[in-house]
Design a protein that fits this description.
- This protein is of the alpha/beta class.
- The chain has 17 helices and 14 strands.
- The protein folds into 2 domains: 202 residues, 3-Layer(aba) Sandwich (Rossmann fold), CATH 3.40.50.11720; 170 residues, Glycogen Phosphorylase B (Rossmann fold), CATH 3.40.50.2000.
- The strands form 2 sheets. It has a 7-stranded parallel beta sheet with strand order 3-2-1-4-5-6-7, with helices on both faces. The protein has a 7-stranded parallel beta sheet with strand order 10-11-9-8-12-13-14, sandwiched between helices.
- Helix 4 links the parallel strand 2 and strand 3.
């Protein structure tokens, strides 16, 4: 690791000025440079019992939210620090962890003077690294200081696994510095071991992202006797796709209704114009309109979408027919309701990968496929029931990860 430290420093000093200059030229700010160099201004005191959670970007930060809440609830005397590697990760962390984390900052560059400065100023007692963030020098520095460092929610994609196998001799040494590795699945466990991790240190914990709870529901929207399709968190350009498909399907399935929820409430007037131009009538949730009077209701209230999935037959998850990267399908899946998404899913790729192995979730590439798959769920009752059962099976296999991690702190 001494050689890695020297080489990483040389490469960093040589390359980083060009990276900074390039990012400045294309208008991307080099956010958090001071902190990434290890110069953090922590409000915590020396001797505080600090648990550090690291999630590189948006997906990991979101996955750690429930764990962070549970840590503070279970261990109120401990201090919680959350680190990220990206600007968007920081933004989400400050939004999600306000009132939970005692300190939020950037993860240091993985070179000796940055890592050592960071650890000297922070001095965590336990470090949890989410998913696939394997920083060799940081792990070595923690091990050297007798700081337990553990990978949680660990996963290795097939492409990453193939790359790691080419330098297995290196990762075998790196993994010696980790106290434990807790993976999402048996397949991930196998990959970590084959890459060089000690089998005695690797356990399956499940996936933190599946620790979603059903919300208490008492929804009276006149939905009884109808099959409600929910289009949740839609973005510009997706409403037309949803409405065209619904209009066509309505001629074949007279009992269907649509609850349309824009990701951004300010877009409701735009959606109303689309509905009027298509000659479609609609009601508004804010006016307490009912499905007994309307085929389409716009969810124009805040904070209700999650519980609405309890009344749906199946759901379309928006942000997936543009470049947004999709939204979390588990809010629907937790109610044993199948989900459909477009091709843009990079924000929740791992979750969709699990759901899509069964009929719990379906990724469609085109508006035509979207309509066809909805028709299948509406026409084939055996297939639909199978998809609902798959949701339940997937959740049963994945849940329990949060309590697993908490038990390791106890």
């Amino acid at each position: 690791m001494f050689l890695y430290g020297i080489l990483s420093t040389i490469v960093f000093i040589t390359v980083i000025p060009f990276v900074f200059a390039f990012r400045k030229c294309i208008g991307k700010p080099n956010a958090g440079l001071k902190e990434k160099f290890g110069f953090i201004s922590s409000p915590l005191k020396s001797g505080d019992d600090i648990i550090m959670l690291h999630g590189v970007s948006v997906g990991e930060v979101i996955a750690l939210e429930n764990l962070a809440k549970k840590i503070k609830e279970t261990f109120p005397d401990k201090k919680l620090v959350v680190t990220t590697g990206t600007k968007t990760g920081q933004e989400i962390a400050h939004k999600k962890y306000e009132g939970i984390a005692d300190f939020i900052t950037y993860f240091p560059f993985d070179i000796p003077f940055c890592v050592n400065g960071f650890l000297r100023r922070l001095s965590p007692k336990t470090v949890f690294i989410a998913e696939t963030e394997i920083w060799p020098y940081f792990a070595y520095a923690c091990h050297k200081r007798n700081i337990p460092i553990e990978i949680i929610n660990g996963r290795i994609s097939d492409s990453t696994f193939n790359s790691y196998m080419k330098v297995r001799f290196f990762f075998k040494e790196v993994f010696k510095n980790f106290t434990a590795i807790y993976t999402q699945s048996e397949d991930d466990k196998r990959k970590y071991i084959e890459v060089g991790a000690n089998p005695d240190k690797v356990e399956v914990m499940g996936n933190l992202k599946f620790d979603v709870k059903r919300k208490d529901t008492d929804i009276q929207m006149g939905q009884d006797g109808f099959r409600v399709i929910i289009a949740g968190s839609t973005h510009a350009g997706e409403d037309e796709i949803v409405l065209n498909a619904f209009k066509n399907l309505k001629s074949k399935h007279s009992d269907i209704k649509l609850l349309l929820a824009s990701r951004h409430p300010k877009r409701v007037p735009d959606i109303e114009n689309i509905l009027k131009n298509m000659g479609l009538t609609y009601g508004l949730r804010s006016k307490d309109d009912k499905f007994t009077d309307y085929d389409i209701i716009l969810l124009d209230t805040l904070g209700e979408l999650g519980k609405m999935y309890s009344i749906c037959h199946f759901a379309f998850i928006g942000g997936s027919f543009n470049k947004t990267g999709g939204h979390n399908p588990l809010e629907a899946s937790v109610y044993d309701k199948p989900t459909i998404t477009g091709p843009s899913i990079h924000n929740f790729k791992d979750i969709y990968g699990i759901l899509n192995k069964t009929n719990a979730g379906q990724i469609v590439k085109t508006p035509e496929e979207f309509e066809q798959y909805q028709d299948k769920l509406l026409s084939d009752n055996v297939f639909y029931e199978s998809a609902c059962n798959d949701c339940k099976t997937v959740f049963e296999a994945q849940q329990g990860a949060l309590d697993f991690v908490i038990s390791k702190l106890s």
